[in-house]
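Field log, afternoon session.

UNIT: design team B
ACTIVITY: writing a sequence onto a fixed backbone
BACKBONE:
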């Protein structure tokens, strides 16, 4: 398969041992694997994918093939690769070290990977004590970030629901993994962080029921853990001796606070991927079925506005929540890759922000409900802010335009035209465009086209002169290359149109 391809799989059972090194997608052309609408494909056997960079594997279910006698393997194995997603699958019946392994190699490490919305269950005892996991992450200490979110993991009675770490003190480890909003149930330990693993964050999960003699340990265990900055916070635990257990001579997993133990979620059922829904109200805000908050932070240029050293923008996001009412939003911004700085805590889903020209911005937003519980952060794209002026090669002039200078202009020469049909064609590489012009009693009208499509006519007439005015803006949901044509109409009595600058958010 090639970048941009989609593979649609018909329903049915495919008895396969799939072991592939994949051709990478790209940041703009991902490769998608998904089921045919309304159908359920199941691979009975193995699914090993190496280097799934920019791949999304959605709804591809896997179960064990009894003909496979080698139990020291893994049923699903995802090795290396960047920005891949494995989601919405059911994996069950593994007789192996793991139903799903995320692994790195010496030559490469997985980065920006995610496991989301999966149901992984019934990994049977097949190896030595505590060696048969639902999910096993051994990516290496230079890997990450990785995300394990909104999965349901149950029945790994000879292992862990999730293991973060290598097989021994020198056998790798897991680093920079976020484990959030998962439900983990019925295992030797629900979540184990071992050896040199570091910088792993564990929060908003439900963890319960340790099997056999392991109940003396915690739902989360730091096993011989020497790695730093492993933090567990805001989790719910039950049916164990404690929520967090660390071997006494090691640094272990840090208690980040606001963990709740014991709190029985009183699941509606514990036998299927449709179950494990808490009926105990305080537990409903945790785990796989916690109310979902979704955001799409987007930034748009505003018009009319005044252009100075910064452009005026609107930051907006969408929300969806089924739980406690939202009390506020936390909004923060990073400039040029620096630390995030809080902007404000609005109660509405938009706000106005001034962005300095020549810098790159990224916004993040989260919801905080009436009980003080915060959702995960949601991030915008990186947003470079530019202003194009004469003599930018992205602006091409057709017809008669003359250079003008004025103390009221933004700086440098502007262009002006009065003859009907004169055009300025701007190549915009970005997600937002604005026209900066002078307004006044001698200024006329200009038509705006995107490609060959007419958008609107902008009237620059004003009873008094006003300079550096953002008179018009266009915003799109995604970045791209577009041709904007500004066509002078030659308005009788006030024909002149000035092109002072063009604002762009890439």
């Amino acid at each position: 398969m090639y970048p941009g391809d989609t593979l649609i799989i018909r329903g049915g059972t495919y008895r396969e041992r799939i072991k592939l090194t994949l051709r990478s997608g790209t940041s703009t052309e991902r490769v998608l694997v998904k089921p045919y609408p309304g159908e359920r494909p199941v691979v009975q056997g193995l699914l090993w994918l190496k280097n799934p960079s920019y791949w999304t594997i959605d709804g591809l279910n896997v179960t064990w093939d009894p003909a496979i006698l080698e139990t020291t393997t893994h049923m699903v194995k995802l090795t290396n690769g960047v920005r891949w997603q494995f989601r919405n699958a059911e994996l069950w019946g593994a007789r192996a070290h793991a139903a799903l392994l995320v692994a790195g190699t010496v030559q490469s490490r997985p980065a920006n990977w995610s496991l989301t919305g999966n149901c992984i269950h019934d990994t049977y005892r097949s190896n030595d004590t505590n060696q048969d996991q639902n999910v096993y992450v051994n990516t290496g200490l230079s890997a990450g970030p990785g995300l394990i979110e909104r999965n349901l993991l149950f029945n790994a009675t000879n292992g862990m629901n999730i293991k973060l770490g290598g097989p021994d003190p020198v056998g790798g480890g897991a680093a920079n993994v976020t484990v959030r909003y998962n439900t983990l149930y019925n295992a030797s330990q629900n979540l184990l962080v071992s050896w040199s693993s570091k910088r792993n964050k564990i929060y908003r999960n439900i963890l319960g029921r340790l099997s056999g003699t392991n109940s003396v340990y915690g739902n989360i265990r730091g096993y011989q853990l020497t790695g730093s900055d492993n933090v567990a916070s805001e989790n719910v635990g039950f049916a164990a001796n404690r929520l967090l257990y660390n071997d006494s001579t090691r640094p272990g997993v840090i208690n980040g606070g606001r963990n709740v133990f014991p709190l029985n979620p009183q699941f509606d059922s514990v036998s299927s991927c449709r179950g494990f829904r808490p009926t105990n109200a305080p537990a409903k805000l945790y785990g796989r079925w916690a109310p979902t908050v979704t955001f799409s932070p987007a930034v748009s240029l505003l018009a009319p506005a005044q252009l100075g050293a910064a452009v005026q923008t609107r930051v907006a996001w969408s929300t969806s929540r089924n739980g406690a009412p939202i009390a506020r939003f936390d909004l923060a911004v990073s400039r040029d890759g620096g630390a995030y700085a809080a902007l404000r805590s609005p109660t509405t889903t938009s706000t106005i922000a001034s962005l300095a020209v020549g810098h790159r911005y990224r916004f993040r937003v989260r919801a905080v409900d009436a009980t003080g519980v915060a959702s995960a952060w949601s991030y915008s794209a990186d947003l470079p802010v530019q202003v194009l002026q004469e003599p930018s090669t992205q602006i091409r002039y057709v017809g008669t335009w003359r250079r003008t200078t004025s103390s009221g202009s933004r700086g440098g020469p502007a262009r002006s035209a009065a003859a009907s049909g004169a055009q300025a064609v701007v190549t915009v590489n970005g997600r937002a465009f604005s026209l900066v012009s002078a307004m006044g009693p001698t200024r006329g009208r200009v038509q705006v086209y995107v490609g060959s499509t007419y958008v609107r006519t902008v009237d620059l007439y004003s009873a008094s002169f006003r300079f550096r005015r953002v008179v018009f803006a266009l915003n799109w949901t995604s970045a791209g290359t577009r041709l904007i044509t500004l066509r002078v109409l030659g308005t009788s009595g006030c024909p002149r149109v000035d092109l002072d600058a063009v604002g762009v958010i890439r």
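LOG NOTE: Residues 298-385 form a domain with the Immunoglobulin-like fold (CATH 2.60.40.10).
NEXT ACTIVITY: expression trials, pending approval
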